[in-house]
Structure prediction request, 304 residues.
Amino acid sequence: MSDSLYYDDLTIGQTFMSRAQLVERDRIVAFAQEFDPQPQHLNEEAARDSMFGELVASGWHTAGITMRLQLESLMGRFPGGTLGAQVNKLAWLRPVRPGDLLRAEAEILELRVSKSRPDRGLVTMRTTTLNQRNEEVQVMTATIMTPRRPQS
Amino acid sequence: MSDSLYYDDLTIGQTFMSRAQLVERDRIVAFAQEFDPQPQHLNEEAARDSMFGELVASGWHTAGITMRLQLESLMGRFPGGTLGAQVNKLAWLRPVRPGDLLRAEAEILELRVSKSRPDRGLVTMRTTTLNQRNEEVQVMTATIMTPRRPQS
Prediction:
């Protein structure tokens, strides 16, 4: 796990790139069976007759993988964790296929101290999920709340 | 599965309520292990020391359950499926705990025919996820694209 980070250590424009995660065919199908059983996500045969023409991951699966990746590279490094989050935009730009390697890059867009709780900071960031060809497959903008560095 | 629905059958203000889905403790933990391994989602002991003080579902798990529910009540009823989606807002309002019963209600906010593809319609809807006490646990606004009824 990487070093811990406080709100006070962040600067606007700073970026955090995650490791790469392999998207496995069986995880695509298992996710779809539980949460998004549309033909394009369930199996190759059903997907062939869908408008995608091939098996692709649910967008919510891509969102979950992105959460995992940016938890490791950024949000999981906040001592005390994140105290709430709101997504302002979440869009899926390209299909994610079995065997794809995804990375997530978070860029800090805005930083402000909470007015009601000055011991907390609000971090707005854009997280771009990229495949092994550096193509954007998902883009998300979100604001999270996290504790500030304790005053000594 | 409910009857099929075309874009042309929808009206602004129309609502679609899903069935209820039980949130099981073991699914909360399994989801967290794969996508969101924060202490409040992983097990009761780790959760006790987190700011939540108890085991709660990942917001992304709630989003997945919501997808499943509104696929059954609305989106899965579109012949030809949905051809793309964008989330404009996604916020988690209250914790989701093991044993909670979630329902999702979608309300049609806006309807417009695609300018570039007049055989497709764009549907903007707000989906509210409620627990067994009718409390809002998640709210989402999204726009999806779906085929229009074929002209005879």
